[in-house]
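Q: Entry one of two.
A:
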Amino acid sequence: MEGVIVVWQLDTGKRRYKPRLGSPLLFFVDSPDSSISCVSCTNNQVHLLNMPNMEVLKTVSGIKMPIASGDLSRRDVCGFDSTNGLVAIPTQDYCIQFYNLFENTEVSEVQVCERNFQPVDDITMYISLVSLSIGGNLMCTVEVKLPEEELGGLVTLKFWNQGSRAGQFHLSTVIYEPHSDAGISAVAFHPGKNMAVSSSFGCNFKVWVQSLALQSSDGKSQSGWRCQSVGSYKKKPMTAAAFSGDGSVLAVAAESVITLWDPDNNALVGVIAEALSPITKLSFAGDSAYLMSLSQSSKPQVAVWNVSNLSMQWSYTLFAEAACCSSSKSEFAVLSLLSCPEGGAPAEQDGIILIFDAENSKPVSSWSVKKAKGGSIAFVKDGPSFDANTDDTRGGEASLLVYVNGSHEYVIFDPLKNEEPQISKSTRKNIQTDEPAPIGYASIYGELPKLELKKEVSDIPFIPSDRPWETIFTGSSHALPPLTKLCSVFLASLLEKRPVTDE
């Protein structure tokens, strides 16, 4: 449970330790010479260890598991970078893991909280939200410190700037208790500006902008984030927020009411009729005037609203686990459970992914999936290594759909094609379970070249040899006559016949 390997010397009783492997250990495999061992952990990592030195030689990491289930887990907590094909997942050790979906490799880890993680400790802090900008150059995280004996709770909002490559971030601004002591329900980035919005259960939302570069004391230029405006509506909790495709409209859900704002002037420009229950997610369908809302309470609902005439276009009663909209088209996807998530339902529920066009209530396509509970979906741009035969007639913008299930297994596929989803070529290339590892001569010098022996047929006619002892034993052993027959012929061939003379 503590993530520590202990090696015992039976003769002397001495012990050697390898601590801080990050999570509880699952399996241990020893090599034949005991110099190298392999251990797997509950955070979906495999470590290759040099046992004499107790050093980690190599670590293979899959998508790490989220924080412990229970009241702390939220739906759809993963962040997606659709431009670079990355998924950002909060892990148990207070990090954000960036995973390349097309290459099937871990890109980097960002340490959000400077705190030692011990698997046996009680959970006192967790990352509740991760949001990435459309280009993937900005990130926002929300971490929550749980109160101890109803004292000491803290909500922290952090903004991050991208480093030299995708998935690498450095901290820009830390804001403690951005909405007093209230929790943050949603964070969204403006599609074209360095602007973000955070909504809270404390009955308000705040618009944040990145300030101009400032000269610090050490001579380096720095930039930070500041609050530009604050808005509220009838003292109702703000439960979701989203920017339109061009960024001119900010939609904020005040429980079951959708309010529309001018983000630059913080002016209320419209109110849409109420939904059946409090809204937990808002998203605009591309550059269109359609707004998708998701309600996940006792009265679940997926609804599409027409922002131009402030009316509902259509709606469904679905137990939706997650939803996402395309950034360029008017299509969106909904991950729905096949049964009610409450009332003794199994932990691993199957589901269905429905693809809609915002103007029509009839699904364009549907896909059955496993382990839908706790899953996430997102549109991503088509990667060059995924499929060379991908149809580019849809513009190449967010044409593929990523489904990450409750066990953090994922698949990438074209939702509008009726073909079985396939993993990317780069992922398939990394799987080598059917090829045995080289041993012996091949492990040191490599494989010998394979010689192709071609049977050459001579045009010269066959002439029996006058020296039979040179060819008598030529051929396969199973094709030769018995030795008793060969012996007399062989010895006779070695004897020199004396000419017969007449006397």
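Q: Entry two of two.
A:
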Amino acid sequence: MSESILSFKLTLYLACVVSELSIYCACGHIICEQTASIQEHFYSVDWTDCTKRFRRNLLVAITRSKKPVTITAGKFYPVDLIMFTSIMKASYSCFTMLHGFVSRRN
């Protein structure tokens, strides 16, 4: 009985960790996509009839929007769906390796 309860607790913990990681990665991906489309919106502005100050500010905004905003983990890894896929692949590889070691012992 205690082994099944422990198994259930570990499964529930794993599901919570994976869902939390997927939420962060999905939000990071959405933010990156949205900020990448800002530059297109700046280019579509009818700037010919605007003041010189507005045109200069628009040029600065276009220049700054060339680099999309990304959420990073510790300033090392971008938090997006690609990183989520990489983490899940690495986790599964480690799991299968450890499972193979344990099954050989028994």
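A: Comment on entry two: The first strand starts at residue 72 and ends at 73. Residues 1-71 form one domain.
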